[in-house]
Specification:
The complex is a heterodimer. By secondary structure, chain A is of the alpha/beta class. Chain A is built from 33 helices and 18 strands. The chains are: A alpha/beta, B alpha+beta.
Chain lengths: ~900, ~150
């Protein structure tokens, strides 16, 4: 991107700027005409100026112009006009006026839209350019970049620049012309007065920008400070665990408070300067008329100046300040956005970016990765010194290479070979290709790297696994090309690729379509030892639109089978099945009334009591009062039982219905009602008490509050709620013959609640589910739902081991020619890691594997590089690979 | 059966006899009522000790593994407390407990039990008194045997 904002704007929007400017100029005559016309209407039509001398008619709508006197002063008539009578003349001129108003409005509309579009296009280009640069950050640069600050810059800081771009060239030209015209007019009237006006303007232009420089400097500091604030807030949120573990909340509060004070102080100083400059500006503008009156009047009294001239000068001067003021404002804005632009650009001009040609997506070398792998005199350094010193080796591909030893060297070599470290001495060659010159596209095709601290993107497990298969929009998936989208993309230097198309390279993994691909993904997860987890995720997952109809039918069948099984076990008391006509004793009161789950959001008691339909259902069935009474009983019991525990004791959160913080409040409530009765309850208090009742489960809490009669009435409330809510309302109701999309697969299969108080119930139930799923051959269907599990921001909803496995599987799915594993298997534990490595080799013995492993796991590799500090010894054991290949072939 | 009946059952347990009824209610409420079918293990010898149980209904056998197979050494019945030594001494189960017929018991979680002891000295003292009594009885038996 260009260092200067104006050059950047000019390079990319020259044509549009000129077109807009041309239209602005073209609009001027119409504008002046519309200013002049009212005078004519008054003087000629209404006062009758045109009908003097007994003329019965007058010409209107004539169109022409006079040449200036130095060209002879002739009048050129383009249209002679039409003769009108007096009333007709008035209406003709008024009609003309109306037409001009419309024309001017249309011009204004067009100019505003064009300016807006121009600004937005440039903003789009700028943001895209910035992201493009960010994508080229080298690994070293990335270590110093704060993600949240980068995001703030791209999102917020360039925003005002976009608003300015439409005015960047047009405004000063337009206003400058206006101001210059007024100045010239004054000069023509009287040179001295002109000089006075000119010198005041010169002072304005000289002094005010100088004063504003301070303002700009403060603005720059403010921009940096608010960017850093965004960075700090993100740091705190990311590091919340550390903040709490080390009890640093007080310090963090102080730190943020300090920053906010600094920001306030900057803003305050900016305000002071801003209004000071404004004051000065106004003062200078007002001083000119003072000088005109005083000096001009004096000259007139002396008889050296014509009074008419003075009046004309003062009138002309009226037109001067507005464009001047706007010009100065424009200048202010210019400085402001220029500073912003420079500030942003500074952050996006790190010394080393990955060269553009390396990232050319089309520069891909197909076919297998060529050998031999040659490392010549490799030296790797970082800020702390030498990491690898003088490593040389040569090996044919494929190779199974183990990198072992203490210290950072094995990992550094792994990262270097997978191009995560770009600054090194010596050479690394794959056949004829130098690793440094290999394009991203080629490396992405052939080399995969799996570290111990992987980054997963929010989305499903599936989205993460297929991330490496998104190479280009697949031919055949081309939807109706959106012409406008493509044109806009071209105009703003954005890519024309449509991300909504199918980008997955099915062929690459020998799959025919999405269904087939899932099987490959499950295979990959099996290799990295995550298939069991995937099954569990599937049970916790939700059925979605992608779940095939036949799977859904079989899930319902599984539900029936499970019900039969549970009936035969433990006297049928392991699970209480949902029945639309029966109260589920093992479920909460809320669950019993809802008999379903909200399609979005949660069904927490507080949320339910906010819901009008729910409250109506309780009111209609006369339950409100009873539920309040029960809530009160619960509150009494809880405050009594937990009274002697200090607030904040862990037992509260675990057992009490009432959060520790709320105990004093409920305590007071209970006392008040004991003395004043239930009538004194406010609506909000009633809602809170009902909230307690809603979470109550008789067999679990055993307070003896729900009898058969109440169960019957709660069933009526259930029916009433369903009636009020409607089948397609916000709640998805349980149906014995259909799956509920709003609850997890496990809940769908169970279709009931596991009984409280049956020993070991959870384990037994899970065991039965597993058996039935296997019996009905539903395992893969469950796993497919597991692939749809959402992993959360950075994959935080998965465990650390699961994240490592998903990342490893993401590499395996891509079928790389060279897989570099940087400790990922070690992090899984010795036995598990060894199994994973073995399965990876077995799957593709023709591909290369380079893995950082413990020495004990290096046995099965056919080349071992052992690091002792920075020095390496290379042990070549070529026989091993052949044996492994033979073993695999023999199986 | 409600919380009240459980509190009654707890009061029959010597270790809890002198504890304030309000505390017993807290103990009962934070405990879980569990049903075991005949033959089902409460826990097995060698398991980590994670809970104590008070029998509310039914009988349970104490079984230890010997070289000659399992051997029943004692039987618990209603209102008996079992498994408390394991959670107090933080040692693995020294014997298995097996339900003899259908059993309902109150499961007192180890963590909760220790929390309550830490919170209420009165409960700790009651437990200590009970343990001291047992020690005294054992000493007396030992003296009898060696005499």
């Amino acid at each position: 991107m260009d260092k200067s904002l104006f050059r950047y704007i000019w390079t990319h929007s020259r044509r549009d700027q000129l077109v807009i400017f041309a239209v602005v100029i073209a609009q001027l005559p119409f504008y002046f005409w519309s200013l002049e016309l009212p005078k004519r209407i008054v003087n000629e039509a209404i006062s009758g100026g045109a009908f003097k001398n007994g003329n019965q008619t007058a010409r209107a709508l004539d169109f022409g112009f006079s040449l200036p006197s130095f060209l002879g002063g002739a009048k050129v008539v383009l249209f002679e006009g039409i003769e009108f009578e007096r009333v007709g003349f008035l209406f003709a001129l008024s009609g003309l006026f109306l037409a001009l108003v419309l024309v001017n409005g249309a011009f204004k509309y067009w100019i505003n839209v064009a300016k807006g579009a121009l600004g937005e296009r440039m903003l789009r280009r700028m943001r895209f350019d910035l992201v493009s640069i960010a994508l080229r950050f080298t690994p070293d640069t990335l270590k110093r970049v704060k993600p949240s600050e980068t995001a703030t810059m791209i999102k917020d800081e360039v925003e005002p620049i976009g608003g300015f771009i439409g005015d960047a060239f047009v405004q000063p030209l337009f206003l400058g012309t206006q101001a210059l015209t007024a100045m010239t007019f004054i000069m023509v009237q009287n040179v001295w007065l002109g000089l006075i006006a000119g010198s005041i303007v010169a002072v304005q232009f000289a002094v005010i920008p100088r004063l504003r420089r301070v303002q700009i400097r403060l603005g720059r500091q403010r921009q940096l400070a608010s960017r850093q604030l965004a960075g700090r807030v993100a740091e705190i949120v990311d590091g919340m665990e550390a903040v709490h573990v080390h009890n640093a909340t007080r310090w963090e509060r102080a730190e943020i408070g300090h920053r906010l004070h600094y920001l306030f102080d900057l803003r305050f100083r900016i305000y002071k300067w801003k209004f000071m400059v404004k004051f000065l500006n106004n003062l200078l503008a007002q001083i000119t008329p003072f000088l005109f009156y005083a000096i001009g009047g004096y000259l007139a009294l002396q008889g050296r100046l014509d009074i008419g001239q003075l009046v004309a000068v003062i009138a002309a001067y009226k037109d001067l300040p507005p464009p001047l003021k706007e010009l100065i404002d424009w200048d202010q804005q210019r400085l402001d956005v220029q500073v912003k632009y420079e500030q942003v650009l500074e952050q996006f001009s790190p010394e080393s970016l990955i060269p553009l040609e390396i990232q050319d997506p089309s520069a891909v070398v197909e076919g297998p990765l060529e050998g031999p792998l040659v490392i010549e005199n490799l030296h790797v350094y970082d800020a702390h010194g030498v990491l690898i010193e003088g490593l040389s080796l040569k090996t044919d591909l494929p190779v199974q290479m183990a990198l072992i030893g203490d210290g950072p060297a094995p990992s550094v070599l792994a990262r270097t070979l997978s191009r995560r470290v770009l600054g090194f001495g010596g050479r690394i060659l794959f056949g004829e290709t130098d690793l440094v010159r290999m394009t991203d596209a080629t490396a992405g095709r052939h080399i995969a790297y799996a570290g111990t601290d992987p980054v997963l993107f929010p989305g499903t497990v599936r989205d993460n696994l297929v991330y490496g298969l998104r190479r280009a929009p697949q031919p055949g998936s081309q939807a109706e090309a959106d012409r406008r989208r493509v044109l806009e993309a071209r105009r703003t230097g954005n890519p024309e690729d449509d991300p909504t198309l199918d980008w997955l390279d099915y062929e690459w993994v020998e799959a025919t379509g999405p269904h087939d691909l899932d099987a490959r993904l499950i295979e990959a997860l099996e290799i990295v030892g995550m298939r069991g987890d995937l099954y569990q995720l599937g049970l916790l997952g939700y059925i979605d639109a992608a779940t095939p109809e036949e799977d859904i039918e079989r899930f319902i069948l599984a539900r029936r089978k499970l019900e039969e099984r549970f009936e035969g076990m433990e006297k049928g008391r392991l699970l209480e099945t949902f029945d639309p006509e029966r109260f589920t004793r093992q479920a909460t009161v809320a669950e019993n009334i809802l008999f379903g789950a909200p399609r979005s959001g949660t069904a927490s008691p507080a949320a339910l009591m906010e819901d009008q339909t729910f409250r109506d259902a309780l009111d209609d069935t006369d339950l409100t009062g009873d539920l309040v009474s029960i809530g009160l009983r619960i509150a009494q019991e809880m405050t009594e039982i937990f009274r002697d525990l200090p607030p904040g004791h862990p037992l509260f959160d675990q057992f009490s219905f009432i959060a520790a913080d709320d105990i004093p409040e409920f305590d007071a409530l209970v006392r008040r009602i004991a003395s004043k009765g239930e009538r004194s309850l406010k609506a909000s208090e009633k809602a809170r008490l009902i909230g307690l009742t809603l979470a109550y489960v008789e067999p679990r809490h055993r307070l003896g509050l729900i009898d058969a009669k109440l169960e019957e009435r709660l069933l009526q409330a259930r029916a009433r709620f369903r009636e009020l809510s409607g089948e397609d309302g916000p709640v998805a109701f349980h149906d014995p013959a259909a799956l509920n999309l709003a609850v997890s697969l496990k809940d769908n299969l169970l279709f009931g609640r596991i009984a409280h108080g049956v020993a070991d119930a959870e384990r037994k139930v899970m065991h039965e589910i597993m058996e039935v799923v296997a019996e009905l051959d539903l395992k893969e269907a469950v796993e497919r739902i597991g692939l749809g599990y959402r992993v959360g921001p950075s994959g935080r909803l998965l465990s650390a081991a699961q994240r490592i496995k998903v990342n490893l599987a993401r590499c395996v799915v891509r079928r790389p020619e060279l897989l570099v594993i940087d400790g990922a298997t070690t992090a899984l534990g010795e036995a598990e890691g060894a199994k994973v490595l073995k399965r990876i080799v077995e799957m593709r013995p023709q591909a290369s594997l380079i893995a950082v492993v413990r020495e004990s796991a290096a046995d099965t590799f056919d080349m071992v590089i052992k690091f002792d500090g920075t020095d390496a010894t290379v042990e070549d054991r070529p026989g091993r690979r052949d044996r492994t290949v033979q073993e695999v072939a023999a199986q | 059966m409600t919380l009240e009946t459980e509190v009654q059952a707890l009061r029959q347990v010597p270790m809890f006899r002198e504890i304030d009824p309000a505390r017993l209610k807290l103990l009962a409420f934070t405990s879980e009522r569990v049903m075991f079918s005949s033959g089902q293990h409460f826990f097995a010898q060698g398991d980590p000790s994670d809970a104590a149980y008070v029998l509310l209904q039914g009988k349970a056998n104490v079984v230890i593994q010997t070289p000659n197979g399992p051997l029943q050494v004692a039987q618990f019945s209603s209102n008996d407390l079992l498994g408390e030594m394991g959670i107090l001494s933080d040692s693995p189960r020294s014997a298995s407990i097996v339900a003899d017929g259908d059993v309902t018991a109150l499961r007192i979680d180890k963590r909760v039990f220790l929390e309550l002891l830490g919170q209420f000295p009165q409960m700790s003292v009651a437990v200590m008194r009970e343990l001291a009594k047992r020690l005294e009885r054992t000493n007396a038996k030992l003296a009898e045997l060696s005499a």
